[in-house]
Please model this.
Amino acid sequence: METVDLARLQFALTAGAHFLFVALTLGLATLVAVIQTWATLTNSPVHLRMTRFWGQLYIINYAMGIVTGLVMEFQLGLSWSGLTEFAGNVFGSSLAIETIVAFFIESTFLGLWIFGWNKLNRWAHLALIWVVTLTAYASAFWILISNGFLQNPVGYQLKDGVLRLTDFGALVANPAALVAFFHIGGGALIVGGFLMAGVSAYHLAKRTAEQDFFRKSLRLGIGVALPATLFTATFGGIGFQTLQPTKLAAWSGSTHRLAEAQAEMVAKYGPGDYLPPLGWVHAGGITMLTLFAVLFFVSGVSFLLMLFRPVVRGFRPWHWLLTALIPVPFVTMIAGWIFREMGRQPWAVYGLLKTADAMSPVSYGQIRFSLTAFVTVFAVLILVNYWLLARTARKGPDAVTLGDRPLALVAPTLTF
Model:
């Protein structure tokens, strides 16, 4: 394996792992905001407890996601300085905005939400979680603006061997970014919805005491997941209109279309192999569509089943199926990400900079060392995150500490 292959593998593993945290963060943040809105409007004790329980799962995942996200910033300087030197003036602007949104606005308001329980007015506290949710989506938006530029370069000028941003509006309106944003946003709601439904189904199958709590949670999870599948499929279909010719040819598998795409690229850019890795593109696309069909079918059937209270309460095979499906949306998201990113190869910036030319001047040994270190750290973080989420989910709402009143506030005051 060559140095560039190791560098690509390193970025793929670290970015893919971070993507899993992001998907769950977006989905759970939205669900928690919806639950807290209902709790605030109705003063419902059970929905307030639901907010705290699902909010604690959200916080655990968010904290781990921040750690993995920091690595992405180092990756660009460590392994891909050629990319940042050539195109950093263009996509760096959206990355800078994302940093401000995520690390200053989102994190600040999340901290206020976490520590503002029982201290802030309930409407002010509700506003905080909506600011957190909207800034989470804003963060994802600006990341995809950067990624969209790599997929479909717009709004730039090539000057003195580097790219200069000339049209910020074109960069923001890039269809390769906007369609992906809505597609991924819908996918995140599927991830969050199936996690909520699966955890709830586990407790219903185990006949835990919180039956009403988890019946409501299961209905909400499925109630969000089903329309989210339709929304995601719609923008996924639209997204095929923005694919590069070589990616479309690779997806079709047609020898004739592959030959045409290769000949077109040779005529435009000179001799070379311009076709993406066909096996990865096909495997990613087929896996994504197959698992998506499973999720759509299960969410559709589950939507009908949840209308009947006895079924929600006692149909254990359905409960265990929903529990087993918790990882499936994550795998679906990763498969789609592989299809999107592998289909861009051999370009780092499509049509402008090849991946091999985007690398930093690092040795094979240096990349191998950093790959080993990053994979080890990320594996530990994923395992810790899974353990914390699973432990918190199994214990149920009684073990939640988010929003608890400090002892000094609830204990009787002693006077002497």
User: Anything to note?
Assistant: DSSP finds 15 helices and four strands in the chain. The CA atoms of residues 378 and 416 lie 55 Å apart. Residues 3-42 form the longest helix (40 residues).
